[in-house]
Amino acid sequence: MPSKNNYSDKPALDYVFHPRSIVVAGVSTDTTRLNFGRILLESLISAEFKGKIYPVNPSGDEVFGLKIYPSIKDIPQTVDYVISAIPAQYTPQLIADCAAKGVKVVHFFTAGFSETGTEEGRQLEWQIASTARQNGIRIIGPNCMGVYCPKTGLTFCPDFPKETGSVGYIAQSGGNSIYSVREAAMRGIRFSKVVSYGNACDLSETDFLEYLSQDPETKIITAYIEGVKDGQRFSKVLRQAARVKPVIIFKGGTTQIGAKTVASHTSAIAGSETIWRSLLRQAGAIQVDSLDELFDVALAVNYMSPPHGRNVALIGLGGGASVQAADACSNAGLALPPFPLEIRQRLKDIIGLEAGNIFNNPLDLYHRNRQEILEEAIKVIANYEQIELLIIHIPFDALIITPRWGANQYIEAIINLGEQINKRTTIVLEFVAKTESKQIASEAQLTLYKAGFPVYPSVRRAANAISKLIQYHHWQQRQYS
Amino acid sequence: MPSKNNYSDKPALDYVFHPRSIVVAGVSTDTTRLNFGRILLESLISAEFKGKIYPVNPSGDEVFGLKIYPSIKDIPQTVDYVISAIPAQYTPQLIADCAAKGVKVVHFFTAGFSETGTEEGRQLEWQIASTARQNGIRIIGPNCMGVYCPKTGLTFCPDFPKETGSVGYIAQSGGNSIYSVREAAMRGIRFSKVVSYGNACDLSETDFLEYLSQDPETKIITAYIEGVKDGQRFSKVLRQAARVKPVIIFKGGTTQIGAKTVASHTSAIAGSETIWRSLLRQAGAIQVDSLDELFDVALAVNYMSPPHGRNVALIGLGGGASVQAADACSNAGLALPPFPLEIRQRLKDIIGLEAGNIFNNPLDLYHRNRQEILEEAIKVIANYEQIELLIIHIPFDALIITPRWGANQYIEAIINLGEQINKRTTIVLEFVAKTESKQIASEAQLTLYKAGFPVYPSVRRAANAISKLIQYHHWQQRQYS
Predict the structure, then answer these.
(1) What is the reported pTM?
(2) Between chains, do B397 and A182 touch, taking CB under 8 Å as contact?
(3) Is the ipTM reported for this complex over the cut 0.85?
């Protein structure tokens, strides 16, 4: 493995995310076959990439109104960045052409290197990395999706959001990076930079972590990591990063069989789970155990003010749902202090005395879901000084009749309260059962995140995210007080 | 609290589920206001209830083409079953009328009894229960949804499936019973009988558990329980039930604050979590910790043959997804034995040598998703004698381009294999991110469960359900060998 180049400027790798011109090598005009070169090219065009785009294929021709060059060397202008979607056996020629052309960054979408577990694959990876190093070219990959940077229009998927955001994401897995951006986008997260870096034969998770920690556009760092190549350097960079921004990490390959799968996926060494856990804890990174949890926590960090205590008020509908929600909060280490008599009396006055309602914490508002009532009740609870956080739980599918009207009453009450409560309120929309309620929830989620409210699919997941946010905040206070 | 009547026939409470005529008391003709009497009546009509239906309201009139009687006593025919949707204060009169009319069962949808925590509420509940007992009337509730029995057309929700099934469900919470039937229905579960029993002032979880254990139409018993009134009897009945059928129980109110919420929800005593856990374990019931898990496990028990060992083959797409799936299986105690050289060679021959694929367990088929290839590959793995179970993992949203074509290749391959593999295969459709893929997954889920395949939304949940199925099977073997 070639040693790393050393770029000492700050943030050193900024040019990787801001190429002035891009080549996509391996673009086919044959629309009857799946061709990733064409998909990647189309993605750049639809993301309105800010620089020049040059498709390359030995057979020439034209695609999407762009001339296809037979070789990189035939392009008359300078080329900053090359995306390789050609078969692995042609990559040594490609990297030689890139060197001749003065290319700065090559992203190898191409797979078939060390992850195959063959001597041939390892050799080929060593060869391209070595040529790159000798010519000052940085490599992303091979065997990965590359970079998504909405600000410059760099992307690898035609349906990713065009808006930029403040969350950075480093993903060893290509599929995970695609899934994650889509899922996070639905939930109101927008990204500054996303990198899927695969086998990491040159630029690694550590390089990108260092970059994101220095990048002023990135406020929160998230990562899916299968293994690191230089544990000591990673540990050092992680400590530095966690000191300046929240760093949330999901480590894949924590079991023996998972670790074995890691080896054939990205050729990385997964490392022991125990070592990882203590490394992350000591560095002050937030540890999570799934992709869902990764963005659950990112959402809380992104939308909410860090609370000092653990006192939550739970407003919901349905007795059974309230019981389960109370259990979920309690299991996540949150407290649900009972409301004093005065608050309960005010709630009774607002809601009206009706049997079957619980005028306490959790507050059950089943069948009392008129907007004005909800708004007033939420306001009373939000103004009660013992309460730091609100969870508003709307389980659509527990209602007998079509829930659109009821859901809208809730959503409008919450939207009206808006900035009065959004920095300390999470909304739970449960919508797994009915097709209709799934649609209502999708629309509501969009409305709510635009108003600054994080939305979760269950109280359990919301409570867990809040709990991790509090833990992180307490860790920070211990560090800097 | 009045003592229970003793019905010794077997199954003693069968008449509760087979009334010949029903009264819905509290039906309003005013369509500008939410009226649960009308909704419950409409539900019975749309479920094509097999007997006579009589709406009752002091003001008379007509609704859905049915004459509204001012009182139960005005109905010229016999009445077996009464649904009360009237305010609590009128229920003593109603139960007196029921006694005069010779009614056998009253379901009190009406709330406002002991769950309010007031002396008045407790008194009222005691009063109706006492009158009922003196007149041989059985009570379901109060403060609950009642009975859903698709075979007779008894129901409490207009959108519940009309088809009958083999799963019985006992739910202390009304909202939970509604949510559960909908969610389970989407996943291919059909019910024999569902009872939401609320405060259980007469008929309790134990009565219904005993009934379901003797009911030949019920093959699997599921339950959401907040607390029991007679622990000893419950424990005895549970042992008997678990001896003859799988019994899956979700206990709500396991935390202190959850238990407090239970008290104001259904006035039940939640009991200590430790006692519950050991009670369920000793009885041989399957314990779960959420409603989702309740039906995850019911699905596995319902669709799959119990496996003897823990050897699973994982077929999926995407390296990162495979790593996480392998971790999930391993954490659930499942084994992923590596394929021998011969199987790997046969897979290579079928799939074609392509870089980036993993020819082992898990088998990563990213981008090799033509139906014929998938079908052949699955067949080779299913026929490998070391493998007892298959998990086929299709994470739609990890694919770059629109997944309908790719998804269909998978679904068709699985459907073609059908009965050759369905008793030992679970399908995982991951579809949380994109609206389009949610729809594809909903359609695919329907197709798959009709072909006998249980579908899960994540490998984690599938692996957990399989693991619980294996545990249960091993417990059974120890008992009866």
Answers:
(1) 0.91
(2) yes
(3) yes
